[in-house]
Amino acid sequence: MSLIADAFSVALDQMRGNELEQETQNALRIVLGSQDQLLRTAVGLVFIAQRRELLQRPAKDCSAEALKRVGRKLQADAEVISRAARSYLDEASSYGYLLAGMWLESAALNSAGGRAAHETLERFALTLENALAGDSAAAQPQDSSSPGKIVIECPSCRQRLRVRSGANLVATCPKCQTNIDLDSNNSKVALQ
Q: b/e map of 157-175 (b: 16 or more CB within 10 Å)?
């Protein structure tokens, strides 16, 4: 009987992981696609604050089930805040709680979709923290996930691009199709 229960649990994690991966992409698309910089910033601040609080909590029960339960509670709280939203800050808080809940729940799922959702949210959090810290220590930051690559900013549309580092290279922006000479673009390197 335990084997059946384990198989069922794995299947549920896989299904929820796939759902969370889609929900994460949709939520980030809404937040990042917003033309309202203030809303994007407020959502990011709430998400970062919630994530930091979760990381600093004492580890009373760090089982996967406990993490999933707390993550789902944050997502439910986000739904309640959203339904009762009367202000801009309420709406930003709702999205911030939603992202934090998805981040925590996805960390506890043992599935490819859960890992993908968690990695996406973790990259988003680290990008926000770097931006908040004003981390401009390196003139050409290396992309730690891709050795030999740098992150640059398109001079035309400001899209960030991850490209190979090296002399005599030309990159094409996928958004606006501008050709960027990397030799002359060294001063335009963006933060990761």
A: eeeebebebeeeeebebee
